[in-house]
Amino acid sequence: MKTTKSKSKKMLAAAALFALLFTTVLNAQKTITKTELREKRMIGNLVNGINSDNEGLKRSSIYYAGKYKVDETVDALVEQLEIETSTENKYLISLSLYLIGDDKGIEAVKKVAAFDNDPRAKRLAAAVYYEYLLDESDFVAGLENAK
Q: What is the pTM of this model?
């Protein structure tokens, strides 16, 4: 009888320990890895740079957003394209949006090509949009040839 009580106490203790560990695992929060944290900070820095008053920082941020195809910067680039006064910056933003390839960004480039007051900005945005259309038609032609 003594061994039965000690066995049941051990089983109860083991069950309690298992329940404690199981609930701890279920309630554990997902930890953010250093890489994920670094990526979030980099994207935040790019967006801040795109919205900056510092022209050099702004242009560099726009360039790198396009070069590395950072999808998360599309909203900031579109907003900046709508308020930008510099033709060079509009062109750089258009190129970055083209490289990223997001539909929202391409629509913003199309809008500049159609409605911008600056004829040079219109011409440059139209060239970028035309290049996008050529790429799309080449892609579709490639699909048709694959059949």
A: 0.74
